[in-house]
């Protein structure tokens, strides 16, 4: 049996031109007006004549209102958001009659959310550019996260919050998202040096293929750009474009790699425990800097977190002071020192030989599972900067 595709809303900020802002504000006003007029009509019909007015009737009313002199301005905006307002009112009444909601309230200029909903006939989405009805230019959207491959929005909602910020929400069918069955599987993930990631299962995940070769290419392109004299405009521009192209290729391959990886991790596991390491802190260490930029840890984490939300999985970030590398995952003995170059070590307590990264991933998993089972009640040991175990403890932070 093929599961139905999940529809998901992707919300982004955008920055309207002055003309677009005027158009949208006018549309918000008309949406509010139409909604309130229809609410009056339906209320009168219900209270005075015990009649239920349906969507089609209010739609006919809208046509009539537009022909009056007083409401002729409703013709100035796209008719689709106005029709959608009537549909929303219909849904509000359906909920009311189904005893799931209170009687619909009027939209107020101050209290109500300013929004307008556009269906496919009222916008064009092409090549990643979204143009709304009554507009000539596409919206200047900040694509803070990618839309699913080949996604075509069925509904677009524009809104403005109280702080005056503009948002656009695109409802798309996401073929990559299928509801997942719950599982007991959990995994701890360590951000490594030699490998991109090490899983508590012992699996080590390498950097994307071609990354090393692309870096060589990039270095060569950058050297060529540096050699071009400032006066040599045309060739300099060409060299600069070449550098930009290699950069884009590295970023594309990395994103592709991280997408596949995070999808797999989220599919296979109910709980994913990561270390709450901030790139900023690691960059202080020169040797780590390159590895971290390659690993694109923050991109990995944000992809992981949003996919986990989609599929109903948990990502738990364990406090970065948690001594995941110094703690023996077999007996719990805390080692005094664990210099970065030590990849394999033998525990003082139980004598077992451990791979540094796999051991760390194991510890993260155990700490994360303790947190997820007991809420804030369990506190893993905390190491002081001096390397001694301390009784003062830190609770791993659970991501919202
Ligand atoms: Zn041990």
Note the run of SSEs as H and E: EHHHEEEEEEEEEHHEHHHEEEHEE
Low-confidence stretches: 376-400
| Cα shape | flat
Strand order of the largest sheet: 2-6-7-1-5
Number of domains: 2
Give the strand tally.
16
Radius of gyration using CA atoms only = 28 Å
Write the topology of this structure.
Blueprint: E1 6-14, H1 18-49, H2 55-67, H3 79-97, E2 114-119, E3 123-126, E4 129-132, E5 141-142, E6 153-160, E7 166-174, E8 186-191, E9 197-199, E10 204-205, H4 211-227, H5 233-268, E11 271-275, H6 279-282, H7 286-295, H8 297-311, E12 314-318, E13 344-346, E14 353-355, H9 356-374, E15 382-383, E16 389-390
Parallel strand pairs: 8-11, 11-12
Antiparallel strand pairs: 1-5, 1-7, 2-6, 3-4, 6-7, 8-9, 9-10, 13-14, 15-16
Helix pairs in contact: 1-3, 2-3, 4-5, 5-8
The protein binds zinc ion (ZN).
Zinc ion binds at residues 328, 330-331, 333, 347, 349-350, 352.
Summarize the structure.
This protein has 400 residues and is an alpha+beta fold. The chain has helices at 18-49, 55-67, 79-97, 211-227, 233-268, 279-282, 286-295, 297-311, 356-374, and strands at residues 6-14, 114-119, 123-126, 129-132, 141-142, 153-160, 166-174, 186-191, 197-199, 204-205, 271-275, 314-318, 344-346, 353-355, 382-383, 389-390.
Q: How would you portray this structure in words?
A:
This protein folds into two domains: 6-174, no CATH class; 186-206 and 253-390, no CATH class. A hairpin with a 2-residue loop joins strand 3 (123-126) and strand 4. The model is unreliable at 376-400 (pLDDT under 50). It has 400 residues and is an alpha+beta fold. The protein contains nine helices and 16 strands. Strands 2-6-7-1-5 form a five-stranded antiparallel beta sheet. It has helices at 18-49, 55-67, 79-97, 211-227, 233-268, 279-282, 286-295, 297-311, 356-374; strands spanning 6-14, 114-119, 123-126, 129-132, 141-142, 153-160, 166-174, 186-191, 197-199, 204-205, 271-275, 314-318, 344-346, 353-355, 382-383, 389-390. 41% of the residues lie in helices and 18% in strands. Helix 1 (18-49) packs parallel to helix 3, helix 2 packs antiparallel against helix 3 (79-97) and helix 4 (211-227) packs antiparallel against helix 5. It is flat and about 85 Å long. The structure holds zinc ion (ZN).
């Amino acid at each position: 049996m093929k599961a139905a595709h999940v529809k998901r809303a992707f919300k982004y900020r955008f920055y309207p031109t002055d003309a677009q802002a005027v158009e949208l504000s006018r549309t918000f006003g008309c949406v509010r007006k139409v909604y309130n007029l229809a609410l009056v009509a339906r209320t009168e019909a219900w209270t005075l004549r015990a009649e239920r007015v349906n969507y089609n009737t209010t739609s006919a009313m809208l046509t009539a209102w537009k022909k009056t002199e007083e409401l002729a301005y409703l013709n100035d905006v796209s008719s689709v958001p106005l029709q959608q307002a009537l549909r929303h009112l219909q849904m509000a009444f359906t909920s009311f009659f189904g005893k799931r909601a209170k009687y619909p309230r009027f939209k107020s200029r101050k209290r109500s959310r300013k929004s307008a909903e556009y269906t496919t006939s009222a916008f064009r989405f092409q090549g990643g550019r979204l143009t709304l009805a009554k507009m000539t230019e596409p919206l200047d959207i900040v694509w803070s996260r990618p839309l699913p491959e080949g996604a075509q929005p069925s509904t677009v909602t524009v809104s403005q919050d109280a702080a005056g910020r503009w948002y656009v929400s695109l409802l798309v069918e996401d073929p990559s998202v299928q509801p997942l069955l719950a599982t007991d599987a959990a995994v701890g993930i360590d951000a490594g040096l030699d490998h991109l990631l090490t899983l508590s299962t012992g699996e080590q995940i390498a950097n994307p293929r071609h990354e090393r070769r692309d870096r060589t290419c990039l270095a060569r392109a950058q050297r060529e750009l540096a050699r071009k004299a400032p006066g040599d405009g045309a060739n300099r521009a060409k060299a600069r474009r070449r550098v930009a192209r290699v950069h884009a290729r590295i970023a594309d391959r990395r994103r592709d790699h991280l997408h596949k990886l995070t999808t797999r991790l989220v599919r296979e596991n109910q709980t994913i425990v990561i270390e709450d390491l901030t790139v900023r802190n690691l960059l202080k260490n020169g040797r780590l800097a390159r590895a971290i930029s390659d690993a694109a840890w923050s991109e990995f984490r944000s992809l992981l977190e949003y996919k986990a939300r989609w599929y109903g999985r948990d990502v738990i970030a364990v406090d970065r002071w948690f001594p995941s590398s110094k703690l023996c995952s077999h007996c719990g003995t805390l080692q005094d020192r664990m210099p970065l170059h030590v990849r394999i070590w033998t525990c003082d307590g139980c004598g077992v030989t451990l791979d540094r990264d796999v051991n760390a991933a194991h510890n993260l998993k155990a700490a994360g599972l303790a947190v997820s089972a007991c809420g804030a009640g369990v506190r893993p040991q905390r190491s002081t900067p001096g390397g001694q175990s301390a009784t003062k403890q830190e609770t791993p932070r659970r991501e919202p």
